[in-house]
Specification:
47% helix, alpha/beta
């Protein structure tokens, strides 16, 4: 069974997924951060593949992309860094990024490398559903990779049900139409959206992301879904960290609550 599917079967609620950019803050920090997140108690990890034009990302993630690329980060380098990952890491790991670099790398080559190093899933926000079903799904399935789609407050019920039908991991509920890290806290309008999706009784787990940055936001988001995704707040912490392992443990405990 895929680790992503397994982790949602083991624990239904208050899942914490953490996003960070590969090769940031230091080019060789990818695996140490992954290991620190496991020690700290994260439930899933999304590793961002740096891209020169991350259109859905706010200033924090853009900054981490620019720095990682300037230091020589690439998809090739990322797979090299992850080649022994499964010797120390049991967490579900997803790679998140944009379609163009994956196509440049070569789709089947990319899927094969994911399988080789132990990556469990893919999040490509700009991958159209029609193309996924026609071209990508058979290859993802062949290499044991789950695919995660994003939905927003503007997504129709019909489209959300389509996403639910064709998702193989979890559904990524984008909390607002703005870029990552743009807002903090959960508004009444966002609550209404979360309740609308909650009332649809979807079959796949749901994780809320964009704008979740503290314990209060994590708990509130988790009351409407199976958990929450934190990205910009974690990257901000990494940008100033002097001890990644200790600071990551402290950060995750603060988000989940010390007794979590």
């Amino acid at each position: 069974m895929n680790r992503i599917t397994q982790v949602f079967l083991q624990k239904q609620d208050k899942k914490l997924a953490v996003y960070f950019t590969a090769g940031f803050p230091g080019i060789d920090d990818t695996l140490p951060i992954l290991e620190a997140l496991q020690q700290a108690g994260a439930d899933l990890v999304e590793i961002g593949m740096p891209y020169s034009d991350p259109i859905a990302d706010g200033p924090t993630i853009q900054m981490s992309n620019e720095k990682a690329l300037a230091q020589g980060m690439s998809i090739n380098k990322l797979f090299d860094q992850l080649k022994n990952m499964r010797q120390t890491v049991t967490l579900p790991v997803l790679l998140m990024g944009y379609l163009n670099p994956v196509l440049q790398f070569g789709l089947e080559r990319f899927c094969k490398k994911c399988q080789e190093v132990g990556v469990d899933g893919i999040i490509l926000p700009d991958l159209p559903m029609r193309e996924y079903l026609a071209q990508y799904k058979p290859m993802f399935d062949a290499y044991g990779l789950v695919n995660t789609f994003l939905v927003t407050p503007q997504t129709s019920d019909e489209r959300i049900r389509q996403v639910d039908d064709h998702s193989t991991g979890f559904i990524y509920l984008v909390s607002s139409a703005s870029v990552t890290g743009a807002k903090t806290g959960i508004s009444d309008e966002q609550e209404s959206y979360f309740k609308r999706v909650q009332a649809m009784k979807l079959t796949k787990p749901r994780m809320i992301g964009f704008g979740i940055s503290d314990h209060e936001g994590f708990v509130k988001a988790s009351s409407f879904a199976n958990g929450a995704i934190i990205g910009s707040a974690f990257i901000n912490m990494l940008a100033t960290s002097t001890d990644i392992q200790k600071d990551t443990v402290r950060f995750i405990k603060t988000i989940k609550g010390n007794n979590a």
